[in-house]
Amino acid sequence: MTTTTSAPPVSAGPGPAKVRAWPRTVGVSLTRIGIIVLAAALVELAVELRWATPLQVAPPSIVLPALWDGLTTGNYLSLLGTTLAEVGVAFLCAATVGTTLGYLLWRRPLFGRAYEPLLYALASSPIVLLYPVSLVMFGRTPVAVAVLGFVAGLFPVLISTYQAFRRLDDTYIKVAKVLRLTPGQSFLRVLLPAALPSVLVGLRLGLTLTMLTVIAMEYLANVGGVGAELSLAYLRLRSADMYAVLLLIISLSVTFLFLLNLTTRLVVKR
Amino acid sequence: MNAPTDGAAGTAPALVIADVSKSFGDQTRRVPALGKVSLTVARGEFVSLIGPSGCGKSTLINIVAGLIDGYEGRVTVSGAPLDGPHPSIGMVFQDDSTFPWLSTLQNVEFGMRMAGVNATERRERAMEMLDLIGLRSFADRYPAQLSGGMRQRVALARALAMRPEILLMDEPFAALDEQTRMVLGEELLRLQEELQQTVVFVTHNLGEAVQLSDRVVAMTARPASIKAILEVDLPRPRDSSIVSSDRYGELVAHLWSLLREEAITAFNQRDAAQAGAVR
Ligand SMILES: Nc1ncnc2c1ncn2[C@@H]1O[C@H](COP(=O)(O)OP(=O)(O)OP(=O)(O)O)[C@@H](O)[C@H]1O
Ligand SMILES: [Mg+2]
């Protein structure tokens, strides 16, 4: 194959043979969008042909306008803001407290060993089911939601930080000592950067759990942002709104993960 | 050449190890790791420690590095008693110790940066070191993009950039393949001619010890004490062609005759320890 125009096209149809290879990422993106569009078209078709009733499945032709209305004239943006604030505050607290406690646990091996199994158990338990406790303590407020989101995100961050420091290469610590680093230098310049990649894994997990818990509690307790709206739409059989809010929630989590991936890539350049 | 110590220190030997011994464990189960060891290393001298594995070489070198305390005996550096990690002692470790989050240049600059050397001088000295170890064109690469041998050279440059009076090397080539190891050995010889650095070098490799050193200290099985000290009378400057000389062969053979018995003892110690563990 050649790109010069004078060469006769090899087994190309009529017209100029322009088989340019796309960058791979473009192909991936196109395929991804294509699948989504195809799925949406199938849903539309299914409703059109009455395989499913509009109550069971709202067709995209209704959901998308509903989403647009909600965003422009409705209260979706403020709902989104509430949820974002809950997730944001909860995650920031989980990240700060989790990394600090994880580090302290490593510095105090006795506590580390004593609490490790307990922490694993907590990290894998459905914290969201504690929502009545949070409601009782903080009332039907976004604060109650954020607190539960914080608790849910805390344990994975704590555990991964503890593990990250435990798995630190002993040689790094020796290098820091031989180069006579101050305790502050040795933490900021050696221990922390060495532990960071594993800590970031925990932060990802923490963010996911915080987000899930926040939205689930909003739904269960009918308080706060998008989760509460989802439960309202469901209870009132407003199927178009329900799907519109679902779309909103999914795009929210996709955005969060995208941002997190981006930061990970920026921080861990190795 | 070396900044911080001068005056009386100029005449004292670089390193004096006097009756140093060390045991690990508590009252109930003491493991003597190091018997009484006394050794004096002159300025500019390259001394190797060689002995059976587990005999206590790392323990000794870590004591000198200030990484282990609670030992008996005295260590003095340029005439002053050792108290924790010493500003004019540098160290290169067996395992990769380059920081993966820093570029080659930043790794070499690291110690100076922490010590507050200003940016211009730091850059200058780091570049000098990169030239010395032949990695200038890799200044902006990260360790993950370097081979194991290159990373070890970066670690060496990081230590040398601090201009230590004494450089400690604990099996720095042990994790590398044979050929890389020979290349780095040759490089170290060349560096040694250029810098006249005082080096204490731990190795398992008889040939490496003879090729590089002015003296080779043969150690006994654990707890290590000094079995004999071999003066290496090969002419300097040396290069790797020295390994084909008769004298080199004789020295290696002699070293092995010193170490053979200790190696067997250490081997049996390990067997016994394993049998003990099984019981
Ligand atoms: N922190 C420690 N606690 C208890 N025992 C230790 C400790 N460090 C070393 N030892 C023991 O002391 C002995 C000497 O260890 P050392 O690492 O100094 O040997 P080595 O000569 O460097 O061995 P190798 O050739 O394998 O590197 C070994 O039996 C080891 O198990
Ligand atoms: Mg050792």
Automatic annotation (TrEMBL), chain A:
Pfam families according to UniProt: BPD_transp_1 (PF00528)
Protein localization: Cell membrane
Protein name (Swiss-Prot/TrEMBL): ABC transporter permease subunit
Transmembrane segments annotated in the record for this chain: 26-47, 87-106, 118-138, 144-165, 186-207, 242-262
Any one annotated GO CC term: plasma membrane
PANTHER family (alphabetical): ABC TRANSPORTER PERMEASE PROTEIN MJ0413-RELATED, ALKANE SULFONATE ABC TRANSPORTER-RELATED, MEMBRANE SUBUNIT
Residue ranges occupied by any ABC transmembrane type-1 domain in the UniProt entry: 80-258
Membrane-topology descriptor: Multi-pass membrane protein
Native source species: Streptomyces radicis
InterPro entries assigned: MetI-like (IPR000515), MetI-like_sf (IPR035906)
Keyword Transmembrane helix: yes
Family: Belongs to the binding-protein-dependent transport system permease family.
Alphabetical UniProt keywords: Cell membrane, Membrane, Transmembrane, Transmembrane helix, Transport
Domain of life: Bacteria
GO BP, one annotated term: transmembrane transport
Signal sequence annotation: none
Matches recorded under CDD domains: TM_PBP2
UniProtKB/TrEMBL annotation, chain B:
Keyword Transcription in annotation: no
Pfam families: ABC_tran
Molecular-function GO terms, alphabetical: ATP binding; ATP hydrolysis activity
Keyword Hydrolase (UniProt): no
ABC transporter domain: residues covered: 15-246
N-terminal signal peptide: none
Keywords recorded for this protein, A-Z: ATP-binding, Nucleotide-binding, Transport
UniProt-recorded name of the protein: ABC transporter ATP-binding protein
Source organism of this protein record: Streptomyces radicis
